[in-house]
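User: Run a structure prediction on this.
Assistant: Running it now.
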Amino acid sequence: MLTPRAELDVQLPPRPFLPPLQPLAPQVAYSPTSAISPAFNVGLTSAGVGLFVSAIKNSLETHNKGAMGVFTRTGWIVGYFATAGFVFSYVDHTVANIRESSTDGVAGAAGGCAAGFVSGIRTGSIPKAMGMCAFLGAAIGTYDLAGGQLGWEKGSKNRDEREKDRLEFFKKRSMVQEE
């Protein structure tokens, strides 16, 4: 679907960074989900990541605590990661349930803001907490609003559809030879 430009002699492909004029797919009714179950799963996963980070930090520091230093010296990282992950997921799902939409970026922005606030409040500074809230909320909200993909993911299209889109993006050889 190429859009003609009056002042140009070529057909330019549509710009993917602009929102489409009509919805790409029919709107499916939103079905609410529990906020606790996914938040608990994300919290446990985040705790595992925190344990990994704590182990690396423990191994890079010099001390006489041995392997128990993962829990005694740098163990706060495990709880910190678990809390941030749990809070993000819980707020994200709760806001999505209230708004009955998880695709508009607001739920992700609220979850990011909550996780950022938890990250900033650990330092004991409300201004840092508010700054982290604004930063993470904007970053995650933008990511969700952009479709939740960074660009290198395959997405929901199969290989044939992606190849067709790729071929439609470039000029055809016959068009180039005529010019």
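The longest strand covers residues 3-4.
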